[in-house]
């Protein structure tokens, strides 16, 4: 996942502009609470499944290099798996490892019956072809939903593994009671991991879907005129303050997927996390908004657990 760094001086400006316009009217969508509820119900399901069928669901993780954000995401995923009763093992590889060695490790996980799901933490170092590594994952263990077979199934209207972040956004909308049926949704960002699969999900039929979807990107001619049409606006660009209040229709629901690290010496770690949305000023216009952190992030972890459980059920010949 891309984590943008922005300099401290700029970070202070962001905070000032945001604070000066802050007149919160939007309801805060509590992703942390919703994710906790989803995780508790998944843990109960894992426990029932373990009683009936050993072994526990298992997740094999491959982590390459020393990127601090990637290490922190993987620690979060390991903790969440343990709490849910999912067996997990992480293979940590040096940043200089060859593509062949990464693929060899994927293939070991493919063959190992203890692992029903496999996750390769992205991004990989530049000398490794991410797409080749993703293609080497057994599609029936691809809990990240990035293998072309799973991406194709989603587009064909028969989703199996859907990437956890878009699945988490959809689940957040459902659990929070936000109607997507007939809504105009505008998604900023077209990555394979967020924007594209989210568009496919929300365009589908059924609950938490059936929306009219527009996807924007750097080639979009007039971004603000598109975003102002949205009943539900999703920001997934990886740029702090990419979405300001002028870009939001009054009363819209705003979902902020972005996560960027902003230098902040007042914090113990020396940084804080911000989303793509100018939170303070947009809160004065929107009807509901997700915070960063505490919005989409926790849902991503919950839906990874959902996908590992699904992989285990599929290995037993079951389904959802
Ligand atoms: N909360 C979570 O769990 C979670 C999970 C995944 C990602 N994220 C965060 O979500 C953000 C996006 O991640 P990603 O992996 O999708 O990033 P990405 O691969 O860098 O994709 C960014 C997308 O945004 C578009 N974009 C960038 N700047 C734009 C602008 N000014 N106007 C319109 N479109 C713009 C890009 O357009 P082009 O295609 O034209 O370049 C691209 O499609 C990052 O901050 C990442 O850290 C969070």
Summarize the structure.
The protein is of the alpha/beta class and 320 residues long.
What does this structure look like?
The longest helix has 22 residues, at 31-52. This protein folds into two domains: 4-29 and 176-296, NAD(P)-binding Rossmann-like Domain (Rossmann fold, 3-Layer(aba) Sandwich), CATH 3.40.50; 55-139, Leucine Dehydrogenase, chain A, domain 1 (Rossmann fold, 3-Layer(aba) Sandwich). The protein is globular and about 50 Å long. By secondary structure, the protein is an alpha/beta fold. It has a six-stranded parallel beta sheet with strand order 2-12-9-8-6-7. Strands 1-10-11 form a three-stranded mixed beta sheet. Helix content is 41%, strand content 16%. Helix 3 (68-84) crosses helix 11. The protein has eleven helices and twelve strands. Residues 1-3, 165, 188-191, 193-195, 216-220, 223, 236-239, 242, 257-260, 296-297, 300 line the site of NADP nicotinamide-adenine-dinucleotide phosphate.
Largest sheet: 6 strands, parallel
Oligomer: single chain
Percent strand equals 15-25%
- Termini separation: 27 Å
> Could you name the CATH homologous superfamily of the largest domain?
NAD(P)-binding Rossmann-like Domain
Fraction of residues in H or I helices: 40-55%
* Low-confidence regions: 7-17
Number of strands: 12
Number of distinct helices:
11
Q: How many domain regions? A: 2
CATH architecture classification of the largest domain: 3-Layer(aba) Sandwich
Return the CATH topology of the largest domain.
Answer: Rossmann fold
Radius of gyration: 20 Å
């Amino acid at each position: 996942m891309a984590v943008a760094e922005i300099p401290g001086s700029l970070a202070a400006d962001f905070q000032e502009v945001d604070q000066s316009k802050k007149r919160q009217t939007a309801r805060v969508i509590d992703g942390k609470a919703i994710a906790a509820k989803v995780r508790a119900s998944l843990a109960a399901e894992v426990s029932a499944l373990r009683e009936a069928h050993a072994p526990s669901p298992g997740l094999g993780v491959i982590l390459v290099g020393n990127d601090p954000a990637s290490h922190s995401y993987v620690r979060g995923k390991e903790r969440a798996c343990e709490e849910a009763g999912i067996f997990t093992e992480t293979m940590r590889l040096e940043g200089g490892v060859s593509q062949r060695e990464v693929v060899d490790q994927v293939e070991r996980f493919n063959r190992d019956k203890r692992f029903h799901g496999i996750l390769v933490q992205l991004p990989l170092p530049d000398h490794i072809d991410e797409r080749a590594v993703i293609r080497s994952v057994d599609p029936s263990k691809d809990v990240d939903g990035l293998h072309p077979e799973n991406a194709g199934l989603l587009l064909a209207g028969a989703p199996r593994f859907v990437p956890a972040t878009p699945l988490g956004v959809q689940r957040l909308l459902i659990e929070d009671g936000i109607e997507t049926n007939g809504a105009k949704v505008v998604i900023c960002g077209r990555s394979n991991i967020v924007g594209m699969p989210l568009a496919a999900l929300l365009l589908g039929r059924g609950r938490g879907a059936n929306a009219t979807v527009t996807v924007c990107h750097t080639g979009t001619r007039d971004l603000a005129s598109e975003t102002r049409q949205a009943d539900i606006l999703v920001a997934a660009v990886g740029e702090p303050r990419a979405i300001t209040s002028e870009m939001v229709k009054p009363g819209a629901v705003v979902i902020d997927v972005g996560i960027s690290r902003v230098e902040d010496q007042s914090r113990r770690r020396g940084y804080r996390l911000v989303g793509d949305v100018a939170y303070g000023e947009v809160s004065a216009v929107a009807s509901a908004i997700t915070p960063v952190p505490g919005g989409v992030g926790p849902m991503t972890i919950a839906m990874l657990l959902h996908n590992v459980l699904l992989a285990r059920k599929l290995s037993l010949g079951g389904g959802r």
